[in-house]
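Following up on my earlier thread - several people asked me to post the actual chain instead of describing it. Fair enough. Here it is, all 236 residues.
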Amino acid sequence: MTRFYFPLALAAAFALPAIAQAADVPTPPRIIVSGEGEATAVPDLAMLTLSVMREAKTARVALDANNDAMAAVIAAMKAAGIEERDLQTAGIQISPRYNYTNKPDGSQQAELVAYQVTNTLSVRVRDIDKTGDILDKAVTLGVNEGGGISFTNADPATVITKARKKAVADAVAKAKTLAEAAGVSVGKVVEISEQSYAPQPMPMSAKSFDAARASVPVQAGENSYRVQVNVTFEIK
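Reply from S.P.:
Thanks for posting it. Predicted structure:
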């Protein structure tokens, strides 16, 4: 039996010095910096989240009323030029609503009073100039729950590339400044990582939708894309 294990033991014995030698190799001195870059672009796409809520004594009646209201909203979206591919149901929720009363023994009694049905629609508006009119029509036809609106870019790759280059240039400049102050030189890049930040949707409350029953002024502004990089350089 011993002769079967001897080659393995011998191989391990030869490998030990190499492992020990690799472990003894010191890590070369390094500079670790972070850089930030930002680039802006005028948005060319609006993303809307619109919700219709209807309430009734039974779930069936509430669902039917909700279906009618949402069908009218979708028809209005299509009439305004929104394509089928830019309309997507984001969720349907059916939930009971209770009233709670206190009993003499201190407990609570729940009474089912109605059912609420909420249907949420995601709308992609490719003509931003129509966003205000579309919101106005949606609210008029029954959208009455909080949703969201965001302005984005259909193809943000170009602007993100600009932000990325600025972030790397910022990191290189910082590394050179630190190296010069320390009396050393910056070597090659050892490691680099990135974090990107895109514009976030703006929430719309029920009050926002109430106010939108009049004309809806919409300002798209500019989208700001930020990139942060962490870069590790060798020190010469």
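Residues 192 and 231 are 4 Å apart (CA to CA). That should answer part of your original question.
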